[in-house]
Amino acid sequence: MMQDAAVAVDAPDPLAVFKSHELRLVPESGGLLEKLFFRAAGQNEQAVMTDGLFLLIFWFSVFFFVLLMGLMVYWVIKYRRRPGVPAPLSAPHNGPLEIFWTVVPSSALLVIFLAGFWGYMSKVVAPADALRLNVTGFKWDWEVVYPGGEKPAYTMPLGTKDAVKIIVLPENSPVQLLLKSNDVIHAFWVPDYRTKMDLYPNRLTTYTFHTEKLADDEVYRDHWVFCAEYCGQSHSEMYAIIRVVRQNDYEAILADWNTGSLSCEELGELVYRTNCVSCHTVDGSPGIGPTWLGSFGTMRALENGQQVLMDENYIRESILYPEAKRVAGFAGQNMTAFLGLSEDEIAGVICYIRSLSEQGQDTPEGEEAPGDGAGTKGDSADG
Ligand SMILES: [Cu+2]
Fold first, then answer.
1. What is the pTM assigned to this prediction?
2. What's domain 264-376's architecture?
3. Cα gap 322→340, rounded to integer Å
4. Which of 96, 247, 298, 313 has the fewest CB atoms found within 10 Å of its own CB?
């Protein structure tokens, strides 16, 4: 206590509030059902839409359950067998009625499908300007690396853990996490955003969401991050905090965290210069292997006649297993498998190749960035 006060007096720290151990979670809200199902209001458009669809399906199910069970009980009693009364013959067929009870529920299901599909796409496709973080799950914590190479340096004691990571994010921004696991399957889950995504060893997945706008009098807002895939003894302790702050505060915090480490792109470029430069060009000129310029998010024709999307997983697979999906037109050029590269270095190469595409071709307005959202598919590349 005394120590804290002394620090505050000697050198006022403008970032002290963001190191705060005070949780500012979204307060509980809504009626009984909302509290029961959601605890607090969804924090972005996708979450609000998810809740709406969930409640629609819930009430749809309740309505038909009550209707069907009610009719069944009523008819079971009304038409029960009575002594001396012969059972009447059932009508064999009623065309209009059958069409009615097929078409009406089917169209309701179609509405649910379309709303669900639209919601799913909005959760897996990231806008081109999304903030991209690399997240690794392991037993039992999360490692987060920001685009500039920064790692969360603020922690707080929470529950049974002394140092729970505070993942700081800017308000009102699209964010895409590139996820992987070092050991078993985990799942990154932010209940306030209503989305979760599995993390696998040997495969990359993405988690896309939009942070909310803070209220005028708010300095930061906290959200729980949980692991939603049972992953062993301390699974229940695999939690972190997302702290949403204003854009200028976010920049100040990241500057505070910066320890001079290489950015994701710089790391990728370094890997390129030391491993890949002899076969791959980055200016579009022909090389022993395909050029990296403008390649991210494009469809590539393979030797076996198939087409494959050049995305995160394709790049990763082609670095580790170059023969898995060979690009057509490079017969006889057998690439070495770079099994010695770390997952961080591979993530760097992905950042670097992505940056070469962003420079080379502007994403038309209103369209998604090349390859975005495809990270959940199992594909591969020519590294
Ligand atoms: Cu886990």
1. 0.74
2. Orthogonal Bundle (1.10)
3. 14
4. 96
Tell me the C-alpha distance between 368 and 379, whole Å.
Answer: 19
Q: What's the CA-to-centroid distance between 181 and ligand 1, angstroms?
A: 9
Rounded distance between C-alpha atoms, residue 335 and residue 275, angstroms? 11
**Region of 297 on the Ramachandran plot (φ > 0 left; ψ -120 to 50 alpha; else beta):** left
Domain segments of the chain as ranges: 42-80+93-124, 131-257, 264-376
Q: How far is the CA of 126 from the centre of ligand 1 (A)?
A: 24
Residue 143 Cα to ligand 1 middle (Å): 12
Phi first, then psi, for residue 100 (nearest 5°) are: -60, -50
The superfamily in CATH containing domain 131-257 is: Cupredoxins -  blue copper proteins (2.60.40.420)
Each residue's pLDDT tens digit, 113-167 = 999 998 888 888 888 889 999 999 999 899 999 988 888 888 889 888 888 999 9
